[in-house]
Design goal:
The structure is a homodimer of 315-residue chains.
Chain A: E1 6-12, E2 16-23, E3 26-30, E4 34-35, H1 42-59, E5 63-70, E6 72-75, E7 80-84, E8 91-93, H2 95-103, E9 107-111, H3 112-123, E10 132-137, E11 141-147, E12 150-151, H4 183-186, H5 188-201, H6 213-221, H7 225-249, E13 253-257, H8 265-277, H9 281-284, E14 288-291, H10 298-310
Parallel strand pairs in A: 1-5, 5-9, 10-13, 13-14
Antiparallel strand pairs in A: 1-2, 2-3, 2-4, 6-7, 7-8, 10-11, 11-12
Helix pairs in contact in A: 1-2, 3-10, 5-7, 6-7, 7-8
Chain lengths: 315, 315
């Protein structure tokens, strides 16, 4: 049993809300996930979350704080959720105040990508660094920035949207009118679409399942030249966005997580190669390009660690 | 006569070293510039700078600190100049220590773009903001980042190189192997080259002088459609790099200075338009896109203000 204070981390997703008790960098107890779409609106869902919290606290009376990672825009200062793209009814919800009233514990509400970055920075691959870029590669591409030993939230709590940065000023139109957004080239579905085009052009058409990032990783590891080329392209495009972060912020490390990062060397090798080819000495000599330590639990751990720190119990 | 402490600001350029006494946001006394190329090496030039400092101090005994803005990589912590691209002999020079020994005053050494940003942030167009992007558009394109109310220097003091960020992952190869660097599209010479190509293609070839940014601004203001198109293109490319900064850092303001910014509305209007088309609400609703307040004196003012703050006399 550790002496560090415990916190509850909540990873709020469009499919499910995952909750766990965190001790240091470990989730020591998981509550059963709550199915997000089963709830009519925020009130009922917050009630269900509060009940889950009470169950966990009954087993872990040492819990000092609650952190919630949200898939959308939040105001960290007030704990208000502005809007969630994939969950109906969540517009201008004072989640911090509501959950504090129901639980009596201090609650911290933060964007999920910032929570993941916090987990990596305080307990994972980014420990000890003052300047970090975190990227999560999946269906969407998210990120977070730590500069001068602080999370950068920006003027309106929007910072870190590396997936929306452009790699081509004349490129594909993205979700917000932004041309050439990285997410529109290296999101899961775009990787699959690019691979299908490449196989079709080679006279060897394949279905979407055969072109998932996992399937493409297996094919590339078996030596398939088309799959290898896809990963090099993906790495090159990720490297461009990462390079822009480097010239702008000169980080100590770039931490890359999410499903696409599971391709391992297939994606890390081209990212590293293209970054080294396109940066000068002070930007690359000591630069670490490393996989995230935490997988699916990054959101829970990060929300909990951030909640403890915000409540005055730094790890 | 103001009661604020005075400082000496030094703007060290490849052509000349400009030195002045700064009171608040004003240069109240200019020393004659020193011609940089006339000196064999750092020692002689530092001696000449020290003599200039002594002349100014004889007239302004209230000077408390000296700030130097350098056109290259410096270590702000140690005051070492790593390397200057355009001035021979300046490799690993401990400028802070040498100039402190000669003058007996605290000396601060900083990159020139960071000095300009500091001037704008503390005394100019960026006053009161916590999150700023500064860009200087000239022969080269430089910049600086302020986040969470602090200048971001990064792991190796290289941060802020917005001119080296890419706007096209398959674009032109730049000075450091980086493809699609903004500077290689909107630097003075590249604007001129693009205009010459456009006029040539239109059957109206023009010389380099007729295609300088100043000449192109005059032509566009007189309604020349080719010149107008050039400025729209330049604005669009600058907007892409600025947009990337916005998604990543969500600044309060983007401050744009340097020679190209003198085109005024011709360049600010397309930058604003293309930025607004490619950002979502929280990134653009309150975003200020403003010209720098300081022109040629930004370097002197910024170096002086930074030196005072570093020496414990914040403005």
């Amino acid at each position: 049993m550790s002496d560090t204070p415990l916190a509850i981390g909540i990873d709020f997703g469009g499919t499910s809300v995952k909750t766990g008790v965190v001790d240091g960098s470990e989730v020591i107890d998981h509550a059963p996930p709550i199915a997000t779409p089963e709830f009519e609106g925020p009130e009922e869902l917050i009630d269900a979350i509060a009940r889950t919290v009470e169950d966990l606290r009954a087993r872990h009376p040492g819990v000092k704080a609650i952190g919630v990672g949200m898939p959308g825009f939040v105001n960290f200062e007030t704990g208000t959720v502005y809007n969630l793209t994939n969950v109906r009814g969540w517009t201008n919800i004072g989640l911090k105040a509501l959950l504090e009233a129901k639980t009596g514990l201090p609650v911290t509400v933060e964007n999920d990508a910032n929570c993941m970055a916090f987990a990596e920075w305080k307990q994972g691959a980014g420990r000890g660094f003052q300047h970090l870029i975190c990227m999560t590669l999946g269906t969407g591409v998210g990120g977070a920035v730590i500069a001068n030993g602080q999370l950068v939230r920006g003027a309106r709590h929007g910072a870190g949207e590396i997936g929306q940065t452009s790699i081509d000023y004349q490129g594909r139109p993205g979700a917000y009118g932004n041309l050439g957004a990285l997410e529109d080239y290296v999101g899961n579905n775009e990787i699959t679409a690019s691979a299908r085009v490449a196989y079709e052009a080679a006279g060897d058409p394949k279905g979407a399942e055969q072109c998932s990032p996992a399937a493409l990783a297996a094919a590339a590891n078996a030596g398939d030249p088309i799959a290898l080329k896809i990963w090099d392209d993906v790495g090159r495009m990720i490297a461009t966005a990462a390079m822009n972060c480097c010239w702008l912020l000169n980080p100590d490390a770039i931490i890359i997580g999410g499903g696409v990062a599971k391709a391992g060397k297939l994606v890390f090798d081209p990212i590293t190669k293209h970054l080294h080819e396109q940066l000068s000495g002070p930007f690359k000599d000591d630069l670490k390009i490393v996989p995230a330590r935490f997988g699916n639990e990054a959101g829970i751990v990060g929300a909990a660690v951030l909640a403890l720190e915000t409540a005055g119990h730094p790890g």
